[in-house]
Amino acid sequence: MQLFSLLDRRPFLWSLFVINFLGTIYGFYWYKNQLAVTDPKLIIFVPDSPTASGFFTLVLLLYLFSRRSPLLEAFASITLFKYGIWAVVMIIWGAVLDSAPFLEALSWQHWMLMVSHLGMAAQAVLYSPYYTFQSREILIVAAWTLLNDAFDYGLDIHPWLAASLEPYDHVVGWFTLILSFTTIILFAIFSLLPSSYRKRELPLLGAGK
């Protein structure tokens, strides 16, 4: 319960803002080699995780200045959760298929990425009481998310996979599509929860926050 009491506190929000901002910059740097060989017209569909954390960084900034954007909240939460879970599953799946023993197949970077991406997914869920999006915003983000999946696996511009996973990229594509629908449905449910769950005010504006 103590964690939930921190979510709308300014120091905590500023800390999350800085963490997500720096993580977004690092995420785009992580994609630098793939972006360098991608058709410029398709680049927007490639850096999935840093784009998601970038959206959430903007949501946090709006909260800090007593503003909200339902569409931005929908983009941030749905993509943040989807790609947070996706990355963790891909890392574990790749290590399981690797010829080396499971723990030996995981480097410190893998562990760092799993922790950071689990944090992304957790943020998306923890802040769900504050979201103001409704069905219109969910439909817009759903269309974008499914179009991104179509381009990723139809044009083969998905995030580069571990060598052990490459032979199964078609299976990864189906998993990604199922994860997209699951995430969209999950956050659609959040948007329908009763008003007692939803925090329509931003108490961080009060004194002492």
Task: Give a quick rundown of the structure.
By secondary structure, the protein is mostly helical.
What this model shows, in words?
This protein has 209 residues and is mainly alpha-helical. The protein contains 9 helices and no strands. α5 (70-97) packs antiparallel against α9. It is globular. The chain starts with a helix and ends in a 17-residue tail after the last helix. Mean pLDDT is 90; it is low at 205-209.
SSE inventory with pairings:
Elements: H1 2-6, H2 10-30, H3 32-36, H4 48-64, H5 70-97, H6 102-105, H7 108-126, H8 135-154, H9 169-192
Helix pairs in contact: 2-4, 4-5, 5-7, 5-8, 5-9, 8-9
Q: Uncertain regions: pLDDT < 50 for 5+ in a row?
A: 205-209
Helix and strand content put the structural class at: mainly alpha
Radius of gyration: 18 Å
Range of strand content: under 5%
Main β-sheet: number of strands, strand sense, barrel status? none
Q: Using DSSP, what is the number of strands?
A: 0
What is the end-to-end distance?
17 Å
